[in-house]
Design goal:
6-stranded antiparallel beta sheet
Length: 261
């Protein structure tokens, strides 16, 4: 009887089961931990590709002057069929506006908005860049033709496309109330180089700068202050107006000459 009791004790079947530690082995495989160390979301965050936009429908001059305010260079150029720089603003509600931006560049194009029509003040910048054939969208501020991307702006509904050296994008943005006048903003377009590897834009080059206008008024006179074209109605300083006084001046001088004789 004693012998059987001792044999039963030395077999220790329950103890052997514990030393196999099957649950512990399953734990050492750490499948969930391996999945965590792959850090797929982190890899996506380090690339710029997820910031590129879905394609945009064609942008055109339709509704310019009726439901949206437009600025273009050359004047009245249709971005749907021609090469030009184009920016439109359409009030959605309150201080929220829908914007369309189009222009020729191999780097980036930026829509700027400021309470003053000069480049030395800070402009809110909404930037669309050619990122390896897709459009990358980012925001910041531009002053003295230098982009500062340390601060971001409120925007939504961004879309963009690149086709034959032309970038087109659309977006919505909420603008601060200018207080001084209803929706008073100067609109601008700048372009510049863009490094797709580093994601960094280069210095800006102005193409359009309008006076401070009421963005909610589609009929506002959004002339281009940078235009030097003598036959363009977008010019802020059209030479044709000055030339129209010359015939009158010559006639007046002739009459004075005859009177003196």
């Amino acid at each position: 009887m004693v012998t059987y009791a001792q044999k039963s004790t030395t077999t220790a079947a329950p103890a052997n089961n514990e030393t196999t530690a099957a649950p512990a082995n399953n734990g050492t495989t750490a499948a969930p931990a391996n999945n965590g160390t792959t850090a797929a979301p982190a890899n996506k965050a380090t690339t710029i590709a997820p910031n590129t936009l879905p394609p945009v429908a064609s942008i055109s001059r339709q509704e310019c002057g009726s439901s949206k305010l437009c600025a273009a260079e050359p004047t009245k150029c249709d971005p749907a069929s021609g090469d030009c720089y184009f920016l439109s603003a359409k009030q959605q509600s309150g201080q929220k506006y829908n914007f369309e931006l189009s222009g020729q560049t191999t780097g980036y194009i930026a829509a700027g908005l400021s309470n003053a029509a000069i480049q030395t003040v800070s402009h809110r910048a909404y930037v669309c860049a050619n990122h390896n054939g897709a459009v990358r969208f980012f925001t910041g501020f531009i002053k003295n033709l230098v982009l500062n991307l340390t601060e971001t702006l409120d925007s939504s509904n961004e879309r963009g496309s690149v086709n034959s050296g032309k970038i087109q994008c659309t977006f919505s943005a909420v603008l601060p109330d200018p207080f001084t006048r209803a929706a008073g903003y100067s609109m601008s377009i700048t372009i510049g180089p863009y490094n797709a590897s580093s994601g960094q834009p280069g210095p800006a080059n102005s193409r359009i700068q309008t006076p401070v206008v009421n963005l909610s008024d589609p009929t506002a006179n959004a002339t281009n202050l940078l235009s030097n074209s003598t036959d363009s109605t977008s010019s802020a300083y059209p030479v044709t107006h000055t030339q129209s006084f010359l015939p009158v001046l010559l006639v007046t001088m002739c009459l004075l000459g005859f009177t003196a004789v």
